[in-house]
Specification:
Length: about 300
């Protein structure tokens, strides 16, 4: 799907031209190969670089070809099996273009005029898009941290399902961290003016954007450490509970072994004490009880139970 948008600095609303207009924003989502080829030919774009944006495993990077800047980013995705997806932002002299296999929801903020922007100032629009990407990351990270906090509060009642969720969170956060680190490298390269020339205002905006990215990286790293600590604490609790259970079962085994041994001795078919006494059973029972009490007291003093 291809849609063209235009909004000048003086306009309050985004317009949709019937045909391409200079300094427009071209938004492309889920194109087939025929559409990609047509897009490449019509707007003089590199076909291979466009196809790279449709690769679900594409990594963030920046390329420059024939005066056109291709910026690849990865944005959060709702699919837990694929936490991030690639987004290509193309900055050309006559237009700015976004291309993705899926339609990013945050772009609707621009389309619905919830964000003040201009397609004429392409560098500023590029940074606004990156700002919204960081905003989506921040929102997702806050949601993950909220879920982790809920589980941490009831740590002693954590179940295997919670552990599986921790593993999923860890995988998502690692994917986020990888994307954010590489995206921050892109921003650093742009700040060094390796690909585009920036005015002072744009330079300052880009520095703020890079700072926001570094903060998100720190949040990811902090959350990952938190998960590792909680998993370690959970593992320790499980080990302690298992030790307590093993101690209890061992104590029961020892206690049951004593009357079993004594009963076995008096069950032998040989002359034994109290063999002809009418109260032999009572004497043996009392002896067993006394021995069990002595063993229990000894185990309690040794802090076994």
């Amino acid at each position: 799907m291809l849609q063209i948008y235009y909004r000048s600095p003086k306009q309050d609303q985004t317009t949709i031209p019937k045909r391409f207009q200079l300094n427009s924003w071209i938004n492309v989502s889920d194109p087939n190969q025929t559409e990609v080829k047509r897009l490449s030919k019509r707007y003089e774009l590199d076909l291979d670089l466009l196809n790279d944006a449709l690769d679900p495993f594409e990594v963030p990077r920046v390329e420059s070809e024939s005066g056109v800047i291709y910026v690849y980013a990865r944005i959060p995705n709702e699919d837990p099996h694929n936490p991030t997806i690639p987004l290509l932002i193309v900055i050309a002299k006559k237009y700015i273009l976004t291309l993705s296999k899926n339609k990013p929801d945050f772009l609707n903020y621009f389309i619905n005029d919830q964000i003040k922007y201009s397609t004429v100032n392409k560098i500023e629009l590029f940074m606004l898009i990156f700002t919204q990407i960081n905003f989506v990351y921040n929102r997702q990270l806050n949601q993950i941290r909220k879920e982790i906090r809920k589980i941490r509060i009831r740590l002693t009642k954590t179940n295997p399902k919670d552990v599986i969720r921790f593993v999923d969170f860890e995988r998502i956060l690692n994917d986020y961290l990888s994307a954010l680190v590489q995206s921050n490298v892109i921003l650093s390269n742009l700040m060094n003016k390796k690909f585009i020339k920036l005015h002072q205002e744009n330079q300052e905006l880009l520095e703020d954007l890079s700072q926001d990215s570094r903060q998100l990286i720190e949040v990811c790293q902090s959350t990952l450490k938190n998960i590792v600590n909680i998993r370690s604490a959970y593992s320790t609790i499980i080990d302690q509970n298992l030790n307590q259970i093993m101690k209890f079962l061992t104590t029961i085994t020892i206690i049951l072994a004593i009357p079993t041994l004594i009963a076995s001795l008096f069950g032998m078919n040989i002359p034994l004490p109290f063999a002809h006494s009418g109260g032999a059973f009572l004497y043996i029972l009392l002896f067993n009880i006394i021995v069990i009490i002595i063993v229990l007291v000894a185990l309690i003093r040794k802090n076994w139970i």
